[in-house]
Every structure is written in C-alpha cells, then in structure tokens.
Amino acid sequence: MVIDSQPRQALVRRFTGLARSTPGRLSLIVVVLVVASLASGWLATWSVNRQERALEDLATRSEPLAHAAQEVYRALQDADATAASAFLSGGLEPVQLRERYEADIAQAQAALSVATASSPDLTATLAAQLPVYTGLIETARSNNRQGFPVGAAYLREASGLMRTQLLPAAQELYRAETDRVARAQDEANFPVVPVLVALAFVIGLVLIQRYLTRKTNRLLNVGLLVATGAATLSLLWVTTVSVLVMNDVADSRTASEKVDVLAQARIATLTARGEETLTLVARGAGQSYEKNFVEVSKRLEGLLDRAKALGNTEAVDQAGRQFQQWQQVHQRIREADDAGQYNDAVALIGNPFFDSLDQSLVRAIGEARQEFSDEVAVARASLAGTVAGVLVLALVSAAGSTAGLWQRLKEYR
Amino acid sequence: MRRLALAAVMLLGACSAGPAPSQVVPRSAPAPQPANASTVSAAPSSSAGAPPSCDATASLRPGPLPQAGQMPEGSTMAKIAQRGRLIAGVDQNSFLMGFRNSFTGEIEGFDVDVARQIAKAVFGDEKKVQFKVVTAAERIPMLQSGAVDVVVRTMTITCDRLKDVDFSQVYYQAGQRVLVRRNSGITGVEGLADKRVCVASGSTSLGNVVNRAKTTVSVPNWTDCLVMLQQGQTDAISTDDTILAGLAAQDPYTDVVGARFTDESYGVGVPKGQEDLVRFVNGVLERMRTDGTWRAIYGRWLTPLGPAPAPPVARYRD
After folding, report:
1. Sign (positive/negative) of CA torsion A268, A270, A276, A279?
2. B76-173+264-305 and B176-257 share one CATH topology?
3. What integer pLDDT is reported at residue B47 of this predicted model?
4. Interface with chain A: mutation pick from B25, B83, B100, highest number of A CBs within 10 Å
5. Where are the domains of chain B?
6. Which residues on adjacent β-strands are paired with residue B94?
7. What value, to the nearest 5°, has the Cα angle with vertex B21 and ends B19 and B25?
8. Which residues are CB-contacts of A345 (< 8 A; sequence separation ≥ 6)?
9. Out of A213-217, B71-75, B262-266, which region has the weakest mean confidence (pLDDT)?
10. Selection from B262, B276, B79, B314 nearest residue B166 by Cα
C-alpha cells in the first residue's frame, strides 16, 4: 500500500496536469467522445435488437401459442357439447355429430401438442385426462347403443371431468399464453434510456463545439460537425422508428384484445349451446343448466358489445344479429319444453343460428388475427436496417470527433 | 481376464460420470368419479332418530272413478284437465322402472306406465302426460313447489315423508337387497361390514344401509352407482330389488344377492292436502288391479324379477 501510493499520486498528477493544459484537455475530449459515441451507438443497437426480438417472438411464437391454447379450449368445449347433443338425438347417433366430435378431439390433441412444446407443465393435466375423457365417452356410447341408461351416467361423468378438470386447465393455459403475448408487447416499448443517452451525446457535442469556438476563435469544425450530424441522425432514426413501432404495437394490442374478446365470445357461445342442450337432456331437471345458459348468454352479449367497441366489422355485426336470433329461438324452445312439447323443443334446437353465429365469430377472429399479424409485420419492417444504420452512424460520429479534434491538436505541436 | 476387463470398464465408467439419464415421470391421472359423489358418515337426521310411528301404507278410500274427460268441478283433477296434460315426476335412470329408451328418446318403464294410466283416467288418452325427470332427492321439493302433479318414481311410503306429502295406496311391494360383482364373494347385506357401498342420495336405502357398511358413498342417480361399481370404486350397491334388477340387466357381470332385508312399499306421491287427487289415484290403482292392467304392466317390464306376483292389497284408513 505504502509503496503503491507513490505511483498513484504521480498518475493523478499527470492527469490533472493533462487536464490543465489545453492540448491535454483536447486529447481527453477525444477519448471521451469516441467512447460516448460508441456507447450510445451500442445502447441504441441493443434496444433496437430487443424490440426486434420481441416482435419476432410475437409473430412467430407467442401469438401462435395463444391461438393454439384457445383452440384447445374451444375444441374441448365443443367436443363435450357435441357428445351431449349426439346423446340427445336418441337412437343411432347422427353421423355429422360423431364426425364433429372426432374432429374436435383431433383438433384439441393437435393444438395441445403445439402448446406442450412451450408449456409442458401447464398441459400435463390435459395430456393425462383427455384420454380418460374420450374413454368415458366411448363407454357411454357403447352402453347407449345397447339401450342401457347407464350410458347417460357415463356421459354425465365425462362431462363432469371436462368441466372440473380439463376446461379449467385449458383456461389456465390460455391465460398463460396471452400473458406471454402481453409481455412481448411490453418489451417492444419505447427505449427511453437509449434515446436519452443519444440526446445527451448530441447536446455534449454541441457544447464541446461552443467551447472550441471560444478557445480557438474558429467558427466551424468540419469533423465535429459531421459527428454531430451523424449523432443527430441516429437519434432521430431511433426515435422515429421507436415511435412507429410503439404505435404499431399499440394497434396490435387492440387487435390482440379483440382476438381475446372474440375468442371468449366463441367459447361462451359453445358453453351456452352445451347448457341449452343439457337442459333438454335433463328432461325437466335441468333448471341449473338453464340458469347457466342465461348467465353465459348475458356474458356473451357483453363480449359482443366489447368486440364492437374495439372496432366494428361486418363479421362482428353479423354475429350480434345472429346472437339475437338465437336468443329468440331459445325462448321458443323453453316455451315448448315448459309446455310439455318436448319433441317440438328438440326439433327447434336444430336451428341454424347457433352454427352461423359460430361461423361469424370464426371469421371475426380470423380478421382480428390478420390485423394483429399486419401490425407486427409493419413494425418489424420499420425496424429493418436500423441496427446497421445506427452502428455505422456511431462509427461516423466517433471518426468525425477524432478527426475534428485531431486538427486542433495538431496546432499545438 | 474377462472379469478384469469388466472391472476396468466399470472403473472408467465411474470416473467419467455423465448426468443421470432423464426419466419420463407419468403424471398420475386420478380416476374420474360421478359428479357430486360424496361419502356419507351417518344416516340423515330424519331417519336417525326413532322413526315416527304411523300406519304409513293406509291411504284414503276411493269413491267411484269419474268418467274420463268429466272431472268433478273445482277438483284438483279438473285443474289438470284444464291444463291439458298431467305433469308427472319420473326417473330416466332406473332401467325397467323409469328410463329413457335411447333409441326412441321416450321415457318408459313400470312407473311411467302407472303415470300413463293416471293420465288415461283423466283425459281418456294416456299420451296426455308430460314427464319431468326428478332425482330421488328432488321428489318431495318438486311436489311441494307444485312443479309436478304426481311423483311416480320408486318412492317408498314412510311416516317421515307423510309429514311433507301425501301418498296413494301401495302400487308395488319392493324390498332392499344388494348388487355385487359376480366374483366378489359377498352373499348378502351381512357381507357389507367391511365394504364400500353406493346409494343414491335422498333415498330410503341410504338410511337402511349406512350403519351396515364400512363406507357409504352417495351419488345423485342409481346409474351413477353402477358406474362406480364398474370402475371399481365401490364394492356393492344396495337398494330396492326393482332398481337393482334394472342395474343387473345392464351388466351381466353383476348379481343381486341375499334376501330382502326391508319392505319398501311404493306409492304415488301427491302434494300434501290434495285428498281428492289421492282418492282419484287410488281409484285408478284399484281399477288397474281388477282389470288386469297391473299384471300386464308387470309382465311388460319386471319379468327379470320373476313371474308376476299378486298386486299389493289396498289398505285404507277411512
């Protein structure tokens, strides 16, 4: 320590000496400017890179995964409702209902394997219980085929498994994936610190030029002017691009919120359909199903209104109208069933409004997803070349600063 | 030499230990259970204390049966006639007694035919009846709220229930027995002491069996019990032989074992205080007994229980 103190003091003296003499000061400024321009450039590159990665994740991973999770939920819900209506139809189950059930299970399984790649823990329950569910449905079918009422009991058990385990697990998966989308959107936000640093660098350059003008009585320094220009250009580039990206990401948030609302509306539609069917299956003991139908319908109406508020399209508008028509038919179904005209009620449940509502929602979801994808693509396009540009500009401003000050330094030789 | 080489290999292996090979750990998938299955530890309070004593199976004497379509003015039957249909609470899960024919979607069975006979007596048309499916536990509430006119659903006449609803005369005499898997070795109710037994909630069978079994599980419907038996979640089902015969008919690997250890007298449930309807239903049952309808309905559904016995004898308290 004692031995060390001698050279250290010498070093400090040398630096202070350097700072006291004008040439020394100029040399220091060169070093500071080069470091600052490179650092500011690196910071800007890093932040743009981060935005690029976030946007890439949105386009290629989180949004497709959220969609897969939503498909898992929808397919499971629809499979359950379809199994119940196949049972309701009595006798030989209609071929198209069986096909729909099989397509739903295949779709759920396919979407599940997409989701499993990213969230194996969240899909564990689904992976373990889905085969159990289909097993129960097949047991219900084979008993039903023999005319045994125990078939209905197996169907109830399967439906209970779906409602208490599979659907909540699918819901959790969907929430996790939509959260991931929101996080990726957050990561593509405005890079405040890099922009402030770049701004400070530009201001620093201007101050140094004023200082040099005072000291050397020369109005302009070409090197420093080039450096300032490059730094300003870089600052403007990053700011403009970030504002553009921010705007696009904000639009993509609206789009993904709309997808979410419409997806929930579709799930509510299928849930309500299931409840409507089960009310008839229960033959007068279905008050709780009818209560659920009314609740889910109310929620569905609210979701459709919200979707409208987020940007009305023809498909959303049509969905709203089909919803109203379906509700009217449902009133008639209830009236027929309550008046003891069971067969009329069963005949009415085959109305086309549920299917067309579902199709309108599918269309609206497709449009909103396209909107989302377009916004993200525009954002990614506006970032193109920014990293390389900012890097080149940083090098230019570093070189400019060095050259400009080198000129002044030479005068002291 | 070989052993030496092996030892060397093992030593080498020990020196260059890699990470343990990964394992696929199966997630346990708990076996599914019927919705609302729960374990019952004690008999429901109403049947736990000393049963109220009364002459439960003595009903009200019927007058002459009015002509179909001409119900006495102001009577409960006239109100039903005005509505245009009888509303009967039945089961759709008890094979043979009240069940849904999965081909036609219609509800059929012994109980259902009794309800149709009542409709026939009111309207002259046995099709003018709306069936409402009720679970065992819903029978009394549905009668009390007026949601149904009558309940014909393997309903045992008890003094307890007579406090809340009225009953017709006995239309079927059943008794509680036990249903087991064919290889279980259980031969009757005595064999249940260390077993798990399934019953429907709100049934009289529950109170009869809860103290004779190690564990009692209750579910909403009798078919849910069969599901539990087939899935190995219960060892036996204990209830009326009529219901058990219907369950056994759906699974050839089950047997109804042991003697009847209770008497279950089925009556048609009627809302409390509607004495005119009770007398009317009794008149219908009386007619069914004498004109051979009872025997015909029995033959249609209950032959798995053996040849038709004589219909139960009517007893009246007035």
Report:
1. negative
2. yes
3. 47
4. B100
5. 76-173+264-305, 176-257
6. B98
7. 130
8. A280, A333, A334, A336, A337
9. A213-217
10. B276
Whole-angstrom Cα distance, residue B80 to residue B61?
21
> What pairing do the DSSP bridges indicate for beta strands B196-200 and B236-240?
parallel
| CA distance linking residue B285 with residue B282, whole number of Å | 5
State the CATH architecture for B76-173+264-305. Answer: 3-Layer(aba) Sandwich (3.40)
Distance (Å, whole) CA A358 – CA A112: 22
% of chain A residues with pLDDT over 90: 57
Residue contact A285–B133, C-beta within 8 A = yes
* pLDDT tens digit sequence for A248-286: 999 999 999 999 999 999 989 988 988 888 788 777 667
Residue A154 near chain B (CB below 8 Å): yes
CA distance B151 to A166: 37
Measured CA to CA, the distance from residue B36 to residue B14 in angstroms comes to: 55
Cβ burial A188-198 (10 Å sphere, 16+ → b, else e):
bbebeebbebb
pLDDT tops 90 at residue A130: yes
Say what the pTM is.
0.80
CATH class for the region spanning B176-257:
alpha beta
Q: Which of A261, A309, A252, A251 is nearest to A70 (CA)?
A: A261
Task: List the 169-228 stretch of B: residues with Cβ below 8 A of A.
Answer: 221, 223-224, 226-227
Q: What is the C-alpha separation between A175 and A123, in angstroms, rounded? A: 12
Dump pLDDT digits (tens) for B142-173: 999 999 999 999 999 999 999 999 999 999 99
Which single residue is written with the structure tokens 């009872």? B294
The distance from CA A302 to its chain's CA centroid, rounded to whole angstroms, is 22
B254/B244 Cα distance (integer angstroms): 10
Q: Which residue has 């890439």 as its token pair?
A: A56
Residue B45 pLDDT level (bands cut at 50, 70, 90): low
Residue B219: which pLDDT band, with cuts at 50, 70 and 90? Answer: very high
Both tokens assigned to A275: 């409840």
What stretches of A2-123 show up as alpha helix (H) in DSSP? Answer: 2-20, 22-57, 63-88, 95-118
- Nearest-Å Rg of the Cα atoms of chain B is 27
Of B27, B34, B101, the CB nearest to A147: B101
Task: Give the closest of A89, A125, A285 to B138, CB-based.
Answer: A285
Cβ within 8 Å of residue A294, ≥6 positions away: none
Burial class (CB in 10 A: 0-12, 13-18, 19+), B224: buried
